[in-house]
Amino acid sequence: MADTALRAEALNADNTHMVFTNEEHEKFYYEKLEQARYQDCEHKALIYVLGISEDTRNHFDQIYDMKSGDIQTECLHQGWQTSGSVRVVRLAFNLYTDGMPSVDDYESRDEQIRECREYSVSDIFCCGYAMYFWQGIKLRYPEYCRKQRSMEEILAEMGWKRAENSTDGDKE
What we know:
The chain has helices spanning 23-35, 41-50, 54-58, 60-63, 83-97, 109-117, 121-125, 130-140, 151-170; strands at residues 9-11, 17-19, 64-65, 70-71. A hairpin with a 4-residue loop joins strand 3 (64-65) and strand 4. It is mostly helical. Helix 1 packs antiparallel against helix 2 (41-50) and helix 5 (83-97) runs parallel beside helix 8. The radius of gyration is 21 Å and the shape is elongated. It starts with 8 loop residues before the first strand and ends with a helix. The protein has one domain (9-147). A two-stranded antiparallel sheet has the order 1-2. The longest helix is centred in the last third of the chain and has 20 residues, at 151-170.
């Protein structure tokens, strides 16, 4: 999937490039974000991730209620779901709520534990959408995903400052 995906790039608010699966994903993201109750990091991540899959784009209203802001965990049991779309929905729910909300759909402890395991990194990320899932994480946690400077850049800056300080002391 990643090999054939159109990588449309746009600048995010913090001037980082956004990567979309295709033009439909990009269009979906900006249209739904404009309709969202808030333009915060939770909504950006939710909408971006739900836009990754054509299945989740087509069933968006069954997954998330734009008016109330409520996620609809029962969507995980609907017949249109695929192994990929279930991963998309679980990651979107997790980024939006910072939890595993569908666990509460089950009464028995064993079922709750089984559902909790469905939110593991390996169960969600081991698929062709992983590259796009990272973009969703960047949208949800921008403060932790800023470009990090390399050790060489830091050392070069330190050397430049030392050189600048040593020449300042020579001036009289």
